[in-house]
Write a structure and sequence with these properties.
253 residues; single chain; seven-stranded mixed sheet
Length: 253
């Protein structure tokens, strides 16, 4: 039986600190690497080319999934593994991927993900296993490209992998705030599209109800407090995205 070929598809924008470790982690896995870059001003493209990646330079849309989909479309392998530049494939996951792509009974796989936050990988607070649908047969998986938190849509049967993908998302608080601010801007955009009300009831929901529910749900119900001060900080600041987004929405027009 012919061995299936696998393409790794990545969208990037100023990821010179992350793209090297990411591509190194798939060097023994990928038959092809496709990088769609949103016009980086650092050495992202240069580093990607050193790893033999096919690089496509374009613009940088607010919804990053648009460029991810461009990378998926440009891939030519039998299977596509879509990664973010700040993610790494462990040796255990690499072996598992090689094994499962020979099983033609599935068109896609959910992969558990460990999220790095201020010095540790979060294991509670609803942050693990953070399943993400990233591995699929060519032509069977697509991104809707409508929301920052959306998952791929896969035609046919989908399975689950056991070994985790490492997401080195927030090694510093500064990086967390930068990423969080981008997500808040997209929340504001969605509020405008849905024509969210600007009234006391909506204000109560976004300023008090939603953040308090999220904070206690992640910290207590999902035991985020067991992740130490990182778990507490994550629950608190992720809860603050609701009032921050609504405040920006009120001021936007």
């Amino acid at each position: 039986m012919k061995k299936p070929k696998i393409s790794v598809a990545i969208a990037t924008f100023n990821e010179e600190k992350n793209i090297g470790p990411c591509l190194e982690s798939v060097r023994q896995l990928a038959d092809e690497i496709v990088v769609v870059d949103g016009g980086s001003t650092d050495k992202t493209v240069e580093i990607a080319k050193k790893y033999g990646a096919k690089v496509i330079v374009t613009d940088n849309p607010p919804i990053f999934h648009i460029n991810k989909q461009k990378a998926i479309d440009a891939a030519t392998g039998d299977w596509v593994l879509q990664l973010d530049a700040d993610e790494e494939v462990t040796p255990e996951l690499r072996k598992e991927v090689k094994d499962v792509i020979c099983d033609t009974g599935y068109n896609g796989y959910w992969i558990p993900r460990k999220n790095y936050f201020l010095g540790r990988y979060l294991t509670k607070g609803g942050q693990y296993p953070d399943y993400t649908l990233r591995l699929y047969k060519k032509g069977k998986g697509r991104l809707p490209c409508k929301s920052v938190h959306e998952q791929a849509m896969v035609q046919g049967k989908v399975g689950y992998l056991k070994n985790a993908l490492l997401h080195n998302a927030d090694p510093t608080f500064k990086r967390y705030l930068q990423r969080n601010s981008r997500y808040i801007d997209l929340m504001v955009k969605e509020m405008k599209e849905k024509k969210t009300g600007k009234n006391p009831i909506e204000a109560f929901k976004y300023f008090w109800l939603k953040p308090s529910h999220w904070f206690f749900w992640t910290l207590i119900r999902h035991k985020g407090i067991l992740d130490g001060f990182q778990g507490i900080i994550f629950s608190f600041f992720s809860a603050l995205r609701f009032p921050r987004a609504y405040w920006r929405y009120l001021r936007s027009s």
